[in-house]
Write a structure and sequence with these properties.
By secondary structure, the protein is mainly alpha-helical. It has one domain. About 80% of the residues lie in helices and about 0% in strands. The protein has helices at about 5-20, 25-40, 45-55, 60-75, 80-90, 95-110, 115-130, 135-145, 150-155, 160-165, 170-200, 210-220, 220-235, 240-260, 265-300, 300-315, 315-335, 335-355, 360-375, 380-390, 395-415, 420-430. α6 runs antiparallel to α11 (about 170-200), α10 (about 160-165) crosses α19 and α18 (about 335-355) packs antiparallel against α19.
C-alpha cells in the first residue's frame, strides 16, 4: 500500500471508528486529522493554521447572527401567533391540526432555520393540543418532526451559509431563493400524507374557513414575518450582504420580541444569549476542525479519487444522481448536519456538476438529505428531541414516521430530477 493510500485509510478509517464509538463529532474530525498529520510527518502548526483559516470568513459571520435571531424570535412569543395564522389558513381540513403543524413549521422555519428549534418550540405546544383533540400521540409527534425539516430549506438558514462557503462562494441570495419552492413541495407532500392518514383514522376537522380571521391573524403575525422579508429582500435585492442583513435582523427581532410582542424580558435576553453562545461554540468548533479534515482530503486527492471511483461504477447520470443521494442519506444516519455539509460537499459537488446538477440545486439536495438524516437513527437528533417532547417511545415514533419518510423521499426525487423546482426563483430574480 502506498503512503498516500495509508494516509487516506488512517484519516477516513479512524474517523468512522470514532463515530461508531460515539465520540463527539468535533473530536472525531480533529483526532483523525491529527493522526494523519503525524503519519505524514507534517508540522502540527498546520492544525492551528487551518482551524483559523476555516473560520476566518466574512460570510460565516452571518451564522451566529442568524442563530441568535432565531433563538430570540423563538423565545419571544412568536410560536403561538404563527400557529394561529396556520390554523386560519388550513385548520378547516380533515386532520386540520396536522395541517396546521406542517404550515406553522414552514412559517417558523423562516425564523429559526433549525429543525431542532422547530420541534422543541412548536412541538411543545402542538403535540399536546393534537392529542387533546383526538390525534394519536405517535402520529402527532411524527408530523412535528418531519415538518420541522422545512425549516432547513426556508431562508434564512445558517446551514445554507455553511454550504455556500464550503462550495466556494456560491451566492447566498440565490441559495435563499432556491429553498422556498422545495420547502413548499415538501409541505404539500407531508400534507397529502397526513390527509390520507387522517381520513383513514377519522381524525377531526377544524373550524370552517373564515377570510376575516385569516386577515386578522396575518396582521398579528406581520412583525414576525417581516423579519424574514428584511433578510431575504435585503440580500436578494443587493442592499445588504448576508452578514449585514443577519445583524439587522437580530436588532429587529430583539425589538419585536421585547417591545411589540412582549414575550421576552431583558432578563430573558441574557438567558437567550447564553444559549446562543453554547450553540455557536459547537458550530464554530465543527467548522474549524472540519477545515483541517477538508485540507487533508484535498492534499490526499480524495475528491478526485472518489469522483473517479463513482464515475467508473457507472456513467449514467440518473444512477449517479441516485448514488449521490444514497451516500448523503447514509452519512445522515451516522453524522450530524454541519459536518456532512463541510466534509461531503468538496467531494460530491464536482461529481454533481459533472452530471449537470447546478451547485445551487445540489445545495438544496444536500440540505434535504441531511434533514432526513436528522430523523433517522442512530444519530437522528431531531428524532430524539421529538421523542422527548412528545413522550413517545422511539420504536413507536420511528414506525409512525415511516409514511412520512416516503413523502420526503418523493420530494427529494422531485428536487433531484426537476431542476426548475430549485432554480426557477433564483433565475427569475437574477
Amino acid at each position: 500500500m502506498s503512503p498516500e493510500s495509508m494516509a487516506i485509510l488512517i484519516l477516513i478509517g479512524s474517523f468512522f471508528i470514532m463515530i461508531f464509538l460515539r465520540f463527539p463529532i468535533a473530536y472525531a474530525v480533529a483526532l483523525s486529522s491529527l493522526f494523519t498529520l503525524l503519519y505524514q510527518g507534517l508540522p502540527l502548526t498546520t492544525i492551528v493554521q487551518q482551524m483559523v483559516k476555516g473560520i476566518s470568513s466574512f460570510s460565516l459571520m452571518a451564522v451566529p447572527f442568524f442563530i441568535t435571531m432565531g433563538v430570540i424570535m423563538g423565545s419571544g412569543g412568536i410560536s403561538e401567533k404563527l400557529i394561529a395564522l396556520a390554523r386560519a389558513c388550513v385548520g378547516w381540513m380533515r386532520g386540520g391540526m396536522a395541517m396546521v403543524n406542517i404550515v406553522a413549521s414552514y412559517f417558523f422555519g423562516g425564523i429559526s432555520g433549525s429543525a431542532a428549534a422547530d420541534t422543541a418550540s412548536l412541538g411543545s405546544i402542538l403535540i399536546p393540543m393534537m392529542v387533546e383533540q383526538g390525534y394519536d400521540d405517535d402520529f402527532s409527534t411524527a408530523v412535528t418532526i418531519t415538518s420541522s425539516v422545512e425549516g432547513l430549506l426556508v431562508p434564512p438558514s445558517h446551514n445554507m451559509i455553511i454550504y455556500a462557503t464550503t462550495a466556494g462562494g456560491i451566492s447566498v441570495g440565490s441559495l435563499f431563493l432556491a429553498g422556498y419552492m422545495p420547502a413548499a413541495i415538501l409541505a404539500i407532500s407531508l400534507m397529502i400524507g397526513s390527509y390520507i392518514i387522517s381520513v383513514k383514522r377519522n381524525y377531526p376537522k377544524g373550524e370552517a374557513f373564515n377570510l376575516i380571521t385569516l386577515f386578522k391573524q396575518l396582521f398579528r403575525s406581520f412583525w414576525a414575518l417581516a423579519a424574514i422579508m428584511i433578510v431575504v429582500v435585503g440580500v436578494v435585492g443587493g442592499k445588504f450582504t448576508a452578514t449585514e442583513s443577519a445583524a439587522i435582523a437580530v436588532i429587529y427581532s430583539l425589538f419585536v420580541s421585547v417591545f411589540i410582542y412582549k414575550g421576552l424580558t431583558w432578563k430573558g435576553v441574557w438567558k437567550v444569549l447564553e444559549y446562543c453562545i453554547d450553540t455557536l461554540s459547537i458550530v464554530l468548533i465543527l467548522i474549524a476542525t472540519s477545515s483541517i479534515f477538508g485540507y487533508l482530503l484535498t492534499r490526499l486527492h480524495v475528491p478526485a479519487l472518489a469522483a473517479n471511483a463513482i464515475t467508473n461504477f457507472t456513467d449514467n447520470p440518473i444512477i449517479l444522481a441516485l448514488l449521490l443521494n444514497l451516500i448523503l442519506l447514509i452519512l445522515g444516519c451516522i453524522m450530524d448536519m454541519a459536518p456532512i455539509i463541510l466534509i461531503a460537499t468538496p467531494i460530491l459537488l464536482p461529481i454533481a456538476t459533472s452530471i449537470g446538477i447546478d451547485p445551487i440545486q445540489f445545495g438544496i439536495i444536500v440540505i434535504l438529505n441531511c434533514g432526513i438524516g436528522l430523523l433517522t437513527p442512530p444519530v437522528g437528533s431531531v428524532l430524539f428531541i421529538g421523542s422527548a417532547v412528545g413522550k413517545v417511545k422511539m420504536e413507536r415514533l420511528v414506525k409512525a414516521t415511516l409514511p412520512f419518510y416516503i413523502c420526503m423521499i418523493i420530494t427529494l426525487m422531485l428536487i433531484t430530477f426537476v431542476p426548475a423546482i430549485s432554480l426557477w426563483l433564483p433565475s427569475l430574480f437574477r
